[in-house]
């Protein structure tokens, strides 16, 4: 089932992205383009991402608390 119609992103692509290391909505959006056009899919995409992370046993990372290496 397509989650983001504008960018043709389906549930499988989101689960694959999680398998490949995606942990945040921002990363998912940058990788797949989902949510970058009309934006109507953002809520559903976040839900599917959250579920995929939970099923993979990966704790959800807050976008605001994400650590960035400096140097
Ligand atoms: S449905 Fe995802 S950006 Fe439009």
Overview features:
globular; binds FE2/S2 (inorganic) cluster; 71 residues; 2 strands; Arc Repressor Mutant, subunit A; mainly alpha
Characterize the structure shown.
The chain is mainly alpha-helical and 71 residues long. 45% of the residues lie in helices and 7% in strands. A two-stranded antiparallel ribbon has the order 1-2. Strand 1 (2-4) and strand 2 form a beta hairpin. The protein is globular, with a radius of gyration of 12 Å. Bound molecules: FE2/S2 (inorganic) cluster. Residues 4-7, 34-41 line the site of FE2/S2 (inorganic) cluster.
Short synopsis of the structure:
With 71 residues, the protein is mostly helical. The chain is built from three helices and two strands.
Tell me the structural class.
mainly alpha
Question: Could you tell me which ligands this complex binds, including any ions or cofactors?
Answer: FE2/S2 (inorganic) cluster
Q: Shape, please?
A: globular
Gyration radius, rounded: 12 Å
How many DSSP E strands? Answer: 2
Q: Tally the helices.
A: 3
Distance between the termini: 42 Å
Q: Kindly state the mean pLDDT as a whole number?
A: 91
The CATH topology is what? Arc Repressor Mutant, subunit A
| Percentage of β-strand residues | 5-15%
Helix and strand sequence: EEHHH
Helical content band: 40-55%
* Domain module tally: 1
Q: What is the CATH architecture annotation? A: Orthogonal Bundle
The CATH homologous superfamily is named BFD-like [2Fe-2S]-binding domain
